[in-house]
UniProtKB/TrEMBL annotation:
This is Lysophospholipase L1-like esterase. Residues 69-226 form the SGNH hydrolase-type esterase domain. One of its GO terms (molecular function) is hydrolase activity, acting on ester bonds. Pfam families: Lipase_GDSL_2 (PF13472). InterPro entries: Ester_Hydrolysis_Enzymes (IPR051532), SGNH_hydro (IPR013830), SGNH_hydro_sf (IPR036514). Residues 1-21 form the signal peptide. Gene3D superfamilies: SGNH hydrolase (3.40.50.1110). The keyword Signal applies.
Amino acid sequence: MKSALLRLSFALVLFGTTATATSQTTPPTRAFEFKDGDRVVILGGTIVEREQHYGFLETALTLAVGQKQISVRNLGWSGDTVFGHARSYFGPPTEGLERLGKHLETLKPTVLIACYGADLPFEGLIKMPEFISGYRNLLELVRSKNPHVRVIVVAPPPLENLGSPLPDQTEANAKLEDVRNALKEFAGKQGAFFVDGFELMGGAKKERPEHPITENGIHYAEAGYQQWAAKMIEGLGLPKQDPAGPAATQLRRDVIKKDSLFFNRWRPANETYLYGFRKHEQGQNAAEVEQFDALVAAEDKKIQEQKLKILQALPQLP
């Protein structure tokens, strides 16, 4: 049994070496331990929500845990904050957190990956104490629904300077560095695993990148998500992966399909007509939303089967 595990570990490292190196950052001395059966929920704003369209992070994570079976659910919401602003629809931010609480009760995560703070440089660092307090309340909400959840706090990545007419992001990156420092301390106090997404993605560089990975200095393009996924895996201390390589093509397609189905499950179109104050018009259709559960579960099964095929095809030690 032990020799089989050693072969699997070595094979994973071999698979990871096919990935294109994007940085010489020294990997962490410790790794986050994922367990078989873990239910992973990813929370955050725009960077998290848009990842579902590319699937690099989940594909890399699925491969990095080896034969262990995990499920991943993306609860990212563009423009969201630790206070729940974007989730609140027509009410105050507290309404957004209440909605999040209901989703957490349903999903019952055992692992939470949270990436917040990218908006803070534009809000003014005078709000840092308020931000940390809001983050603490957010984690308290998560733990109230799932007391044994293991938390990963991710620092938001730096912005890119793409030149005129786009704004210079030097000052914003200096503030993001302060956010990173505050989050590292916060994670320690919360007993959470910390991933320095700011430094792993290059830190506060002032020069224009030769090969931009954002659309506008802020929002990642496909290359940005591919690099971010690689750095997240590195920050978690897991074996390197190549989610964009030929071996992972079908797996990533399955991940993207599953994420699309899940998005329609938890954020259905015309939700006001299904569950809100206009449900008297189309509320009878709300029952159909739950039918997505079986479709998502079927994709989870396909993802695990496809992952095992990839692992079995890896070189074996004699």
